[in-house]
Amino acid sequence: MVDGLGADSTLKPPNVVAGAAKFSPSKQRLPFRRVEDDASGVLPELADNSFAAKKGARGSWGERADMTLKFTRGKDFRHEKTKKKRGTYSGGVISTAVCSFKFNE
């Protein structure tokens, strides 16, 4: 039906979404996850990502920095890190050992 302005009154307003009627409230909505959470898939060697769990961490160059910075959070971390970079800090001997992990694929 055409009203006095020449517009068709049987048309839907432009803000109506065509797929909105297909949504059912019974379907549970889940957040997007690129990788599924599966606790059994984590290797025990890789479960702990701390500096102390790293192979060869004892006596290494970063051990002293780790002891100072591991409890520091936020803005204070940046401040402490900058203080360590000033040149008066000596962490010890720098090791050239390889600490990589080989994955079995």
Structure write-up:
- It contains three helices and no strands.
- It has a domain at 50-105.
- It is elongated, with a radius of gyration of 29 Å.
- By secondary structure, it is an all-alpha fold.
- The chain has helices spanning 44-47, 63-69, 75-84.
The total count of strands amounts to 0
Percentage of residues in strands: under 5%
Helicity, as a percent range: 10-25%
C-alpha-based Rg, rounded: 29 Å
Given as residue ranges, the uncertain stretches (5+ residues, pLDDT < 50) are none
Largest sheet: none
Distance between the termini: 67 Å
Task: Give me the strand/helix succession.
Answer: HHH
Overall pLDDT level: 74
Structural class: mainly alpha
Q: How does the overall form come out from the CA principal axes?
A: elongated
- The total count of helices amounts to 3
Protein name: SRP40_C domain-containing protein
GO cellular component, one term: nucleolus
Pfam families: SRP40_C
Region (Disordered): 1-22
